[in-house]
Structures are given as C-alpha cells and as structure tokens.
User: Which sequence fits this backbone?
C-alpha cells in the first residue's frame, strides 16, 4: 500500500496527507475508517495472539513507511490531559475491536502459560494477581480509577459481587462501558428482558453492580468528598502513569478509602539509575507516544504512597518478564495498513503512538522499562 493511503468502506483509497492540515477533515476521516474493517482485515491477514513472538526491536516495512514527527513538548499538563482525552475518545472503539474489553497487559506467569494462554486469559490472570496481592475481597465497594471501557469493573462486580464505580477522563469510554455493562446485564437477565440502571446509575451484574462516570481523576478528592472514608478499595490499572500529579492521586486515594481499605495498583515504570542513552532511546519514545508525563520508578510510587499515609501491603512485584509478551502480540496486531492509516488520520500523536510499540518491546528487552504490581493499606 502507498504510504499515507488508506482503504475506506467503499473500497476506495484516501490520500491522508491531503487531509492532515484540517481538523474537520481529520475528524471525518477518523469515522470513515471503521474499526470493524480493521478488525476483519487483521483476521484476514491471519494476525492473532499466537503469532510467534518477535525478538527485541523490530522495524517492519509498514512502520518504516511512517516517520514519527518530532515530539511535542507538553506546554502545560492540562494540554497533555486534553490530548489523553482525545486519544481515548477517538481510539477506544479500535482498542475494543483489537484488544477487547481490557486495556491492560496480560500476565503469563509460567512457560506453560506462555505457550497456552491467550491474551484474554492472560489479562484475567493479571487481575487475579492484583486481587491476590491486594486482598481486595468479595462484596467490596471499589473505585476503579482510569477504568477504560470497564472490563475490570465488570469482572469485579460479576465474579466477586463488588459494587464498582469506574471513572475515566474519556466520555466515549463511559458510553462504551455503559453499553457493554447494559448488554451483559440483559444477557444475565431472562432473555428479552430489558434491564435499567438504579437511581444511582448502577447496572446489576452477578451479585454486584457497576456504574461509570466521566471525571478527570485529579479531581476525585472533591468529587467524592461526601464519600470520603467509605471505599473498601481503590483500583488503578495502567492509568496512574498518565497522571501529571501522582502525589495528588495518592492523597486522594487515601482520602476516599476507609481505614483498612486497600489501594491495588498496576503500572509502567522506568528502571532505577538509567543512563542518558537508555533514557533517550527507550523511555523517551514511550513517554512521547503513550502520552505520559515523566515515568517514575517503583520506589518513587512507594515514597509517594507513604507520604500520603498509606502502608505497603503487597509487593512491589516486578513482573516485566511475565507481561512483556503483550507487546509481541500488540506489534503483530498492528501490522495492518488500515490501522496505520487510521493513526495517520489522527495526526502525529497517532503515528507516535504506534511507533512507541517498538520502544515498549525494546525497553522490556533491555530492562530499562519495567512493569510492577503493588498494594497499599490505609
Ligand atoms: C491504559 S488505559 C487502562 C484502562 C483500564 N484501567 C484497564 O486496565 O483496562 C488508561 C486509562 O486511564 C484513563 N485516564 C488517563 N488520564 C486520566 C485522568 N486524568 N483521569 C481519569 N482517567 C484518566 C484513560 O481514560 C484510560 O481509561
């Protein structure tokens, strides 16, 4: 395929470069390239999550066709948050079609698991690991911060009978999460029965319930002021690395938790003591492409949590080697011209996002980029 040209629904190809300067054109393009088309093309191309893992840093023909323009400085942290919101508003249908309802890594704890478990199973394995180390129990009242399209929230409600409030900065994710939860609730009810949310907006799932709220989590302290000290658990999976003010998050988590409540956390980190070259080659493209303020080390999170009055309860458990397969699968999934076309239609952030997948694999291979789970108690 010609670089910058992408197939659209009517079988024609669009030259994306003609549209790049006009936001209105870009928005129309983003909707013209339908996520189902990308999914079906991935399947036609035989891309699946059992593709053989490629080693280290791999440039493909497709990735070579698209240059990543020079990184944009985050002029203000609000500007970064606006870009994060736009990214998830535009891309969440694509995440759902390509990755499913969980927008987080998979966890393959053993060679046997690596050989046999699909990414969907591995994603549930990660949730189970975080449950184990945090001790979040059945029937808990949980605040799922940066909840994506609600995969974890629904799991905690349906499997553990939890009452879960999910918050995300993306209004589109709230729409998708609510739609998926309603559909699951209707499936559980008698066939053909319509199910509605209760007066607080919760949808019944198993013995638990879920609701979703559009909220910049940096405001959660004020938003949940009247619920201060009432949550059994705050759950945050791969969202804190997006937050500019991490100390504020730990203070807010401590504020909403009841005494003895747990903070369950999974996230991305840079290794301790990186040299300038490793930082520039491995970490910078990840921060740039994944829309992250400067990444922290694991010790950095421990210090912030302690500063907010939380005690370490479980971990930190570094599981970089057990999760890195996620990016071999993801790199295979994005070897799809339509997806690069869609990314191109979003401007430089879209291309930098896909290009950063290579940096993720390189960072894991070099040990400069790390993944860990940890839990805290109030
Ligand atoms: C990588 S996704 C993880 C989604 C989900 N936790 C999961 O594991 O499937 C990151 C999430 O963080 C959310 N997020 C990023 N910045 C946020 C903010 N300031 N306030 C609320 N949500 C935010 C995004 O909207 C997205 O849902």
Assistant:
């Amino acid at each position: 395929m010609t670089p910058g040209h992408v197939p659209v629904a009517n079988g024609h190809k669009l030259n994306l470069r003609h549209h790049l300067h006009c936001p209105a054109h870009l928005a129309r393009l983003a909707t013209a390239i339908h996520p189902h088309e990308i999914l079906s093309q991935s399947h036609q191309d035989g891309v699946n999550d059992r593709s053989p893992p490629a080693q280290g840093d791999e440039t493909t023909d497709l990735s070579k066709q698209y240059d990543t323009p020079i990184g944009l400085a985050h002029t203000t942290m609000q500007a970064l948050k606006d870009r994060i919101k736009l990214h998830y508003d535009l891309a969440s249908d694509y995440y759902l079609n390509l990755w499913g309802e969980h927008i987080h890594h998979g966890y393959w704890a053993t060679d046997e698991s690596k050989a046999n478990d699909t990414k969907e199973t591995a994603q549930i394995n990660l949730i189970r690991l975080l449950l184990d180390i945090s001790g979040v129990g059945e029937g808990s009242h949980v605040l799922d911060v940066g909840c994506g399209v609600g995969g974890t929230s629904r799991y905690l409600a349906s499997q553990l009978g939890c009452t879960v409030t999910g918050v995300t900065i993306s209004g589109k994710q709230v729409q998708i999460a609510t739609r998926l939860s309603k559909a699951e609730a209707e499936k559980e009810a008698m066939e053909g029965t319509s199910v509605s949310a209760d007066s607080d907006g919760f949808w019944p799932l198993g013995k638990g319930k879920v609701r979703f709220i559009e909220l910049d989590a940096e405001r959660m302290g004020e938003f949940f002021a009247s619920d201060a000290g009432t949550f059994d658990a705050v759950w945050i999976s791969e969202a804190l690395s997006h937050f500019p003010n991490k100390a504020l998050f730990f203070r807010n988590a401590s504020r909403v938790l009841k005494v003895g409540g747990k903070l369950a956390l999974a996230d991305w980190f840079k290794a301790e003591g990186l040299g300038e070259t490793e930082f520039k080659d491995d970490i910078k493209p990840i921060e740039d492409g994944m829309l992250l303020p400067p990444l922290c080390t694991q010790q950095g999170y421990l210090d912030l949590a302690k500063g907010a009055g939380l005690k370490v309860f479980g971990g930190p458990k570094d599981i970089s080697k057990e999760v890195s397969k996620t990016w071999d699968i993801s790199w295979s999934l994005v070897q799809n011209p339509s997806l690069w076309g869609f990314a191109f239609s979003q401007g430089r952030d879209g291309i930098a996002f896909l290009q950063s997948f290579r940096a993720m694999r390189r960072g894991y291979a070099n040990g400069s980029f790390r993944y860990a789970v940890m839990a805290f108690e109030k």
Summary: The longest strand covers residues 257-270. Confidence is low (pLDDT under 50) at residues 1-54. The chain is about 45% helix and 15% strand. The radius of gyration is 20 Å.
